[in-house]
Design the sequence.
């Protein structure tokens, strides 16, 4: 009864001896046999979530690489009182389940795609449905729900941070690999630039990125923004149906509640718009030598703070915070309806399904660019 155990021990000894002999002469590496059995593959550690501050005097903002999100933006009013003028949360963890898109960079395609599908190069692509019958802001896990990599940080007179995200082929149903960058920079006194670009690597794909901060120039906790004055440099909108999908037509704003060609209070005609404003304006101002055009001016008469927005996109979504419903935000403040407004420069919503709209298709090797300039005064 003792021979089988002895024989087994001898066999195991010989097996290990042969293994270490062949390993010592490089057999396993030379023939690439069985490497996965003996060594785990090396993996790049995922980026860590952080908070980064850009500051120039009494003008500052904080950004997180979770969703490439603007967390806060502080600037003085006409009396020198400094306040945070963007809505948001105190903790990064609260952004994980956020449905308001506070401060986020949204994509791969911002705004709505009708029915969650589109046709491209004779192939139908199906996307997650996350807003009624439609896809909104890139799907269930858009760019606002991913951790971006910090590629570069700059200090000095014009501090900046550059974030990067690789969106893989098939992510949220979209075709092709996409390399995405965004740079937030204090480019002058009370001036913020946002530079977004995305390179299609393998397949043609729609791209439409947007910065989704909610502004309240009286301070994030100052209540409704209906007394804010707003001027939008547009003579037309792209009207929508009951599902907030563009009909494909264009409508003049003259003589309608959508007319903000001259500075007008947000609340002046809002009761004529069910729920409030949530529509794309077709920008009519001429671009300058850098391709930038005037988008909008916003002013809070009480604080004296004002915002001037320039961008290189054909449209801007004016959203009056219609769906805010007692969201618990910074300092425990409850954000209710119309407590903030968004000016999301963009390509036209649902452009992939409206061939009379400017195309958002980026072919392999092409680069999508979206630049914004915010100038604040008080």
Sequence:
């Amino acid at each position: 009864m003792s021979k089988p155990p002895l024989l087994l021990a001898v066999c195991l000894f010989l097996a290990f001896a042969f293994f270490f002999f062949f390993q010592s002469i490089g057999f396993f590496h030379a023939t690439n046999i069985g490497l996965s059995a003996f060594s785990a593959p090396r993996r790049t550690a995922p980026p860590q979530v952080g908070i980064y501050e850009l500051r120039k005097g009494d003008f500052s903002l904080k950004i997180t690489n979770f969703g490439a999100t603007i967390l806060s933006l502080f600037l003085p009013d006409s009396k020198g009182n400094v306040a945070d003028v963007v809505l948001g949360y105190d903790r990064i963890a609260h952004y994980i389940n956020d449905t308001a898109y506070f401060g986020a960079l949204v994509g791969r395609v911002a705004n709505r795609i009708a029915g969650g599908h589109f046709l491209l190069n004779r192939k139908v692509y199906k996307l997650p449905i996350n807003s009624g019958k439609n896809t909104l802001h890139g799907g269930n896990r858009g760019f606002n729900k991913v951790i971006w990599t910090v590629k570069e940080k700059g200090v000095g007179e014009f501090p900046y941070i550059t974030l990067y995200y690789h969106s893989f082929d098939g992510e949220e149903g979209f075709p092709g690999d996409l390399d995405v960058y965004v740079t937030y920079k204090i480019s002058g006194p009370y001036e913020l630039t946002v530079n977004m670009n995305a390179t299609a690597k393998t397949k043609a794909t729609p791209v439409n990125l947007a910065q989704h901060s909610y502004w309240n120039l009286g301070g994030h906790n100052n209540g409704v923004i209906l007394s804010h004055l707003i001027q939008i440099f547009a003579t037309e909108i792209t009207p929508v149906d009951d599902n907030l999908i563009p009909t494909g037509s264009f409508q003049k704003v003259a003589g309608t509640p959508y007319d903000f060609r001259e500075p007008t209070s947000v609340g002046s005609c809002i009761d004529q718009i069910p729920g409030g404003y949530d529509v794309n304006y077709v920008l009519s101002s001429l671009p300058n030598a850098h391709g930038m055009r005037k988008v909008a001016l916003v002013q809070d008469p009480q604080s004296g703070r004002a915002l001037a927005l320039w961008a290189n996109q054909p449209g801007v979504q004016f959203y009056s915070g219609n769906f805010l419903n007692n969201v618990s935000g910074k300092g425990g403040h409850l954000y209710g309806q119309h407590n903030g407004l968004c000016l999301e420069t963009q390509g036209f919503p649902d452009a992939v399904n409206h061939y009379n709209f400017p195309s958002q298709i980026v072919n392999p090797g092409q680069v999508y660019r979206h630049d914004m300039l915010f100038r604040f005064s008080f």
Remarks:
- The mean pLDDT is 91.
- Helices lie at 3-24, 27-31, 35-38, 93-96.
- The longest helix spans residues 3-24.
- The chain has four helices and 28 strands.
